[in-house]
Amino acid sequence: MEIRARYLLVGLFVLAAAAAAVGFIYWLSNTGGLAERTVYQIRFEGSVSGLSRGASVQFNGIAVGEVTDLGLDADTPGEVTATIAIARDTPLRADTRAGLAFGGLTGVATVALTGGAADAPPLASTDGKPPVLIADANAMKDMTQSARDVLGRLDTILSDNADALHNAIANIDSFSGALARNSDRVDGILQGLERLTGGKTEATPTNYDLTAPREFPAIDKLPTGQLAIPNPTTVIALDTQRIIVQTADGEAPAFPDARWADNLPLLFQARFIQGFENAGYLKVGTDAGGLSADYQLLVDIRQFRIATAPAPGAAAIAFSAKILDADGEVVDARIFQATVPAPATDTAAAAAHALDAAFGKAATDMIVWALATMQPVPQPSPEPVLEPAVTPPQ
To answer: Which of 122, 126, 234, 252 has its CA 20 to 30 A from that of 114?
Structure first.
């Protein structure tokens, strides 16, 4: 019984092996490489680098066969003939296009067959030889050769335009240098554009004010005439709310988060009027309120800035003042200046405090001078008129 069981197992194994062999032969004949094929030849003009025997042949992206041979023709050294074997039912036509396709970065080539019109005649053989397809001329250039061609053309372009490229690089260097030197202005322009387009909401800046003078030396008598103070004049750079700082490179607005309470000319005008009133002289106002003035005080702001060099820095103010009478004639004129040390100028508060102190000194001197200038000039007493003596009648 034991011997019969062994024979049974051996028989079963033999039957299984035979069935597997039959299945393999069936698969190889129908699905694998032994299915019925048709042989064609493809003629390439130029290099077919990357193409080898056994390479896949694809028709519209579907694998239909492989390359069985590669050969050269002694009569035409520039051509390569590839023999392919593809499935018999592959619809090759006389207008089917042949070329090379490259897979990924490896550069492995496959033969790519594309389309053809449905009514085009089938590809026929001549003289008993396999039918021949002529590959597209551009199909023979692999990726490496194409890269070489591109680099060659690029090198030619660079050589022919060397001077122009040198000038362009020099211009770019000059432009970048100009941007670096004017980076603060560029930042200001960009910030202005952001505000204009609503792209950025800035924090409310801190406002600083000037203090009108309050303490004056004893004044014997105040003028009886009325005084009008027009809006002071100045250059554009000082007609601003920004705090001006002078460095070794020149003057420029500083502290973007700080502002004066108004433009400097209007602020000067308001604090001058308030200073006269603090001195007890109330017959003062602007020229825009219908005031019938006996005098006018014309002010031209020359300087109002923080100087950081030489250290430790100082706040400086200078302005001219002219007093005109009702006929427009200059009664008197003077330039007032004041300088106050400003050891700390790294913050807006410190800079504004120093400038306010300088303004107070110059404004006080100006108000005292103006009150004295507007005093009426004493007129000399008229000489007595002597009447002739009357002779009594005889």
So the answer is: 126
**Burial group, residue 147, by CB count within 10 angstroms (0-12, 13-18, 19+):** exposed
String of b and e for 7-20 (b: at least 16 CB within 10 Å)?
Answer: eeeeeeeeeeeeee
Lowest mean pLDDT of 21-25, 94-98, 202-206, 277-281, name the range.
21-25
Same structural domain, 221 and 312 = yes
Distances in Å between the Cα of 74 and the Cα atoms of 108, 132, 133 are 26, 18, 19
3-state secondary structure of 271: helix
pLDDT digits 0-9 by tens, 189-219: 777 777 777 655 556 789 999 999 999 998 8
Distances in whole angstroms, Cα of residue 269 to Cα of each of 235, 273, 318, 354: 16, 6, 15, 19
For 314, residues 6+ apart whose C-beta sits below 8 A from its C-beta are 306, 307, 339, 340, 341, 342, 354
Contact 271, 290 (CB under 8 A): no
Domain count, the chain: 2
**333 domain residue, yes or no:** yes
Q: How far apart are CA 258 and CA 206, in angstroms?
A: 5
Domain that holds residue 349: 207-373
Q: What is the dihedral of CA 215, 217, 223, 228, to 10 degrees?
A: -40
Q: Is residue 126 part of a domain?
A: yes
